[in-house]
Amino acid sequence: MHSSRYTLVFTFCMCVFISVLLAGTSAVLKDRQLLNKKIDVQKNILVAAGINIVHVNQVEKLYNKLVTPLLISSNGKIIKDSQNEDDQNFLKIFCIGHKDSPEKIASYVYPIKGKGLWSSLYGYLSVNPKGDTIIGITFYKHGETPGLGAEIEKKWFRDNFAGKKLYEKEKLVGIIVAKGKAKYNINYKQKSQSMVDGISGATITSKGVQKMLYKEPLKYHIFFNK
Amino acid sequence: MTIKKIIYNSIWVSNPIAFQVLGVCSALAVTVKLEDSLVMGLSLTLVVALSNFLLSSIRKLIPNRIRIIVELAVISSLVNIIDEMLLAYYFEMSKALSVFVSLIITNCIVMGRAEAFALANSPVLSFFDGIGNGLGYAVVLGIIGSLREIFGSGTILGLKVIPQYLYDIGYVDNGLMLIPPAAFILLGLVIWIFKSLGGAKGE
After folding, report:
1. Among the ranges A4-13, A56-65, B83-92, which has the highest mean pLDDT value?
2. pLDDT tens digits for B35-50?
3. Quick check: B29 and A146 CB within 8 A?
4. Is a pLDDT exceeding 80 seen at residue B98?
5. Do A146 and B80 make contact, defined as CB atoms within 8 angstroms?
6. Among the partner residues B65, B100, B175, nearest to A146 by beta-carbon distance
7. b/e B37-56 (16+ beta carbons within 10 angstroms → b)
8. Gyration radius from chain A CA atoms
9. Is B103 helix (H, G, I), strand (E, B) or coil?
């Protein structure tokens, strides 16, 4: 049996050692991690816009060539002043140029955020210049169960959304995430334009995605319909 | 005890899931797809082996009264440092694994093996005990993962295995396989098969 004094000294040394170790690792690696995160955000914006990326090295170049970040105010006007970047009153949106002629607008991408079962879901949604049809979607951060809710970031689920309509006769309807396969849903015939396959066994995550795809486009409604 | 015997024992005789019944919660959570089961099994193998090795190297220094806290501190720092390293150098891999990290820290096998083996044996033996137990866990996860994926989604590692003509004549994927109760039932069956073949009896 070790003495109480030894136990206390051991605890103290262990705490100091582990804190220094963890803080040190985090400090040394921070720059690289931030750079990785920045590139990952850029990559997600490009992937959402349906741009094919062969290698990570291309991301920065493609992003600088095609993407213009914009801020829009609550009445849907574009604000040029970049000093306001972190202002909560403005919405972020990214304007994506055509691959061959970057001055023409191919699509808009905006950030989306919602709630899954265990965690918040973060992603990007890409829409056509009119804002009524989805081009692509990505999820870059979530903490859902692997094999169930985490399927949202898989290709089959994301590909589901391409070409689906957010609007029905000028009215925002959002996207319906079906239970299981959309084609077996009783409403599929009338709603096929805006219904996608859900994930079996991850009903709450699917519902969260459905909710966020109404709530987030609503914020940008005025921008696309001014 | 030889290394070979340790590995054999921890996979077959005292398999962490089938005999020790440790790590069952994560076995239910991540076995919907075979790929996820294997990723989880292999990551856990690495973590148990390293944490066993580290704890065994300092086992004579650890005061007995606070050993559980020390184990916790060592295991969680280890996983955190690996996570940070991946985030800096293998970002894609770290994203794919991020959802598993919390499941690994809280996995009972890591602490169970630290308590039961690493604190009483040499670092090298403890390292291989970690490898063996990790693999024992991965084997059971692999079996449950493949069964759930085949009968729940009709695929294995994402490739179609159930031919289309079966679907055409009315075969339907079993939705029960996708939810946790199916993992419970399969886990029970796996333990039963292990036992009836002479495994999972304990040392």
Report:
1. A4-13
2. 889 988 999 999 999 9
3. yes
4. no
5. no
6. B100
7. bbbbbebbbbbbbbbbbbbb
8. 22
9. helix
Q: Which amino acid is at A44?
A: N
Q: Name the residue facing B91 among A26, A40, A180 (closest C-beta).
A: A40
Q: Which residues in A lie closer than 8 A to residue B28 (C-beta atoms)?
A: none
* Position A72 confidence tier, pLDDT thresholds 50, 70, 90: confident
Interface pTM (ipTM) of the complex?
Answer: 0.80
Q: Where do the domains of chain A lie?
A: 33-224
Q: Is B178–A25 a contact, with Cβ atoms under 8 angstroms apart?
A: no
Is residue A86's pLDDT more than 90? no
Residue B155 carries which DSSP code? E
pLDDT tens digit sequence for A115-150: 999 889 999 999 999 888 999 999 988 888 877 888
Please tell me if residue B62 touches chain A, with a CB cutoff of 8 Å.
yes
Q: Is the pLDDT of residue B106 over 90?
A: no
Q: Output the DSSP codes for chain A.
A: ---HHHHHHHHHHHHHHHHHHHHHHHHHHHHHHHHHHHHHHHHHHHHHTT---S-TTHHHHHHHHHEEEEEE-TTS-EE--GGGTT-TTSEEEEEEE-SS-TTSEEEEEEEEEEE-SSSEEEEEEEE-TTSSBEEEEEEEE--PPTTTGGGGGSHHHHHTTTT-BSEETTEE---EE-SS-GGGSTTHHHHGGGEE---TT-HHHHHHHHHHHHHHHHHHHHHHT-
